[in-house]
Input
Amino acid sequence: MSDDDEPQYKRSKTLHYGSLEEQERRRLANPESTGSLASDAIQAGVSAGNINLTEADIMEIDEDIRQSQAELLAEFEKRKRARQIQVSTDDSEVKANLRQLGEPICLFGEGPADRRERLRKLLGTIGEDSLKKKGIHQQQQKQKEEQENITWYHEGPDSLRDARIWLAKYSLPRAKARLEKQRELKDIPQTQKQAATQDLHKRLRSLTIECSQIGDNRPLSFCQFSPNCKMLAVGSWSGLCKLWSVPNCDHIRTLRGHNCNVGAIVFHPQATLTLDDSACCLASCGQDGTVKLWNLISDEPIADIEGHAPYRVSRLAYHPSGRFLGTCCFDNSWRLWDLEAQEEILHQEGHSKPVYDLAFQGDGALAVTGGLDAFSRVWDLRTGRCIMFLEGHLKSVLCVDVSPDGYHVATGSEDNTCKIWDLRQRKCSYTIPAHTNIISKVKFQPNHGNYLITSSYDQTAKVWAHPVWSPLKSLAGHEGKVMCLDISSDLKYMVSASFDRTFKLWQTELPGGL
Output
């Protein structure tokens, strides 16, 4: 560079800086003109020779490059947050946190350290506070569920209060008599008890078919002996209920009233004994929700119980007093009807699915229900409380029965097992792997409860010894599912009704009865 050029360079440099200072002053005075001032400064630098760029050399940053740069920055920030997050070294706590966030607690080939690092990265992405928020939300949800599950009561009608008082006065003397009888049995020598038990088992092993009869042209669904053991009531899928003589199995009468499958037909506890034949001696229920009352004279129903339709009524049972009738409905409830007052006094909910079967304790104080939700419940009729929750079956509970001793309950299920429950110990005392198919009915020996019989869809019925629940006899002879069974109160006969449209009477070959 020559000496003549140096002053000019300095002058242009001074002029350049002076122009920049002037531009800065103008930028501060007018902020909106910042963009134009920057452009003027670049032009001034180019004209002064300090910036040697041509228009072809100007490079603009692509939008994709800017986006990738933003993603990289975000990734760096996420990693920075993840390094600062404190994660527990307890593997169980790490799994609990992953479950709380809705993530899989373990991936294939993943160890505790990898799982911990995965949780750290996840918290770095969604934020550490999200775990706390999830915990607070779950805690609030749990508190809400607990509040919803709180038992609540509402004031019932005076008729229900009067019925509960009546039930208490009825059941307490009977419970006292039952306990006195059990104390007397306790004083019997053990050797005498063993001899009687062995003799009973010997008679049960000799059970054979006494009579076989075609009950209807459609499958049979239910059967029950009359209290005097001289009559048998059978219900079928044709909607007909028929009465048969025992032991000849002669047809007595056909009860016409149902238009669809009959779920059950039961005798009043005093029918054929002290109750007049023209009174209400039987009750039956149907799949269309109808419940009908019958006498022993007419083949037409004398009364209908309305209030279940359109829901199915699967089973019904008389209270031991005969005053009340319990019905199981597919609206997830069971109901108690006062036949003297001719009204419904209790509509009890509690099951999450339809209630399928119902049985009353011999004292008349308790009721046991089994439902398609795989649970059974024990209800105190004097207070209305559910005093025991029977949980253990894997599938629907289809049949229940209460032993004459008052504290053993048998439940049969779709899971092919029969469970024995002890109400005193409040637990399941034994599980019988009874059949290879659905158990349709369970029944304790009347008056004594020394054995239990079960029927199943595997075409057999079986007899089980109490209290060891060992198999004594398998009753085979039906060609279809065994739908129901019963034992006569005089312990002379058993009956089984089947899908093959027949019912069979069973009797022991040895003297002494069942």
